[in-house]
Amino acid sequence: MRGFGIDLGTANTVVGTPEDGIVLNEPSLMMVRTSDPHRALAIGQEANDLVDRTPGGIMPVRPIRDGVIVDLGTARAFLTAVIKQSAPRRRYGLRPAGVIAVPAGATPLERRALLEVGHEAGLRKVGLIPEPVAGALGCGFNPLEPRTHLIVDIGGGTSEVTAICYGGVLSHRSCRTAGDDLTRAIHRYLRAEHGILVGELTAERAKVGAPETADERSLVVEGSDASTGRARLVTLEIEELMDALRPTTNSIVQTLSESLDDLPPRAIGDVMTEGILAIGGGSMLRGLSQLLEDAFGLPVKTAERPLTCVAEGATACMDHPEVVAAYSS
């Protein structure tokens, strides 16, 4: 089967093909007219560049929330534009196939909605694969082997903890604390404790851009003084940043703890040997792997490509339809 592997994320949409690898990685954002909200004027980075710059009558919309569809018409227009932008139609014919990653906790209704949108967007054949399964496959793990893999997927709006083994899900837990909450926590902390105002992108860079080397345990954040409005620099120690985020990350730690409690003894033995795989944009938070290791005494491995491994796994399913068949039942 040839076509697209698609990760429709809350923050970013990533598309891959077996021939070319990742061909699109852009914000899950679309500009529409208020009079015609189901027709895309711009998507992805082009739409993101227009935020706060558009004239009246044009507005930004996010068709995906917590990994699932918000509105069928909007999602159909967005996915159609994504497919058109990802590759020339002539390569795949009029109706290419597609494997779409979905949250492990998606309801049957949400899954049916995604299948419907995929077909209406122009995909000939649509397969669905749970995001943690796709992420594990994209990181080189075999989700069909008789060995338990525990995946922590920290996306933009939701964090999911899923244990998989031999073509099935052993345990699944989720919480509403995720990457966007970590970014907002940094924003609030800088204002309350250091009196500095920063933009969303600056807070995001502080979240994922902190150094990890032993010689460099701090980072510099630039913003405006909350009192005077003048530009000001603040130096943050990594330990201070992690302490500021600890109340927010506690929800993720609690969800992981509950998921471990769900597992049978032999499955826990596999996790103790293999460790925990962290994927998603939120897993890029510096110090998160150490925080989880300290909490559970288990090795934590962050994916080499946490932002694209789900799409890479969905793309790999083009050559491994048995994985889609196993996890779609």
Overall description:
This protein is α+β, with helices and mostly antiparallel strands and 329 residues long. α2 crosses α4, α5 crosses α11 and α6 runs antiparallel to α8.
In short:
With 329 residues, this protein is an alpha+beta fold. The protein has twelve helices and 18 strands.
List the helices and strands and how they pair.
Layout (H helix, E strand, L loop, with lengths): L2 E6 L3 E6 L3 E7 L2 E4 L8 E2 H6 L8 E4 L2 E2 L2 E2 L2 H15 L2 H4 L4 E6 L5 H13 L5 E5 H8 L10 E6 L4 E7 L2 E8 L3 H16 L1 E2 L2 H9 L9 E8 L5 E7 H25 L2 H10 L1 E4 L8 H9 L3 E3 L6 H8 L4 H7 L2
Parallel strand pairs: 1-9, 9-10, 11-17, 17-18
Antiparallel strand pairs: 1-2, 2-3, 4-5, 4-6, 7-8, 11-12, 12-13, 14-15, 15-16
Helix pairs in contact: 2-4, 5-11, 6-7, 6-8, 8-10
Helical residue percent band: 25-40%
Which CATH top level class of the largest domain fits? Alpha Beta
Order of helices and strands: EEEEEHEEEHHEHEHEEEHEHEEHHEHEHH
Question: What's the CATH architecture name of the largest domain?
Answer: 2-Layer Sandwich
- The total beta strand count reads 18
- According to CATH, the fold-level topology of the largest domain is Nucleotidyltransferase, domain 5
How is the main sheet built?
Answer: 5 strands, mixed
Q: What would CATH call the homologous superfamily of the largest domain?
A: ATPase, nucleotide binding domain
Overall mean pLDDT: 91
Q: In percent, how much strand structure appears in the residues?
A: 25-35%
Question: Which structural category fits the helices and strands?
Answer: alpha+beta
| Count of separate DSSP helical elements | 12
Strand order of the largest sheet: 3-2-1-9-10
Flag low-confidence runs.
none
Radius of gyration: 20 Å
- How many structural units, i.e. domains? 2
Principal-axis shape equals flat
How widely separated are the two ends? 20 Å
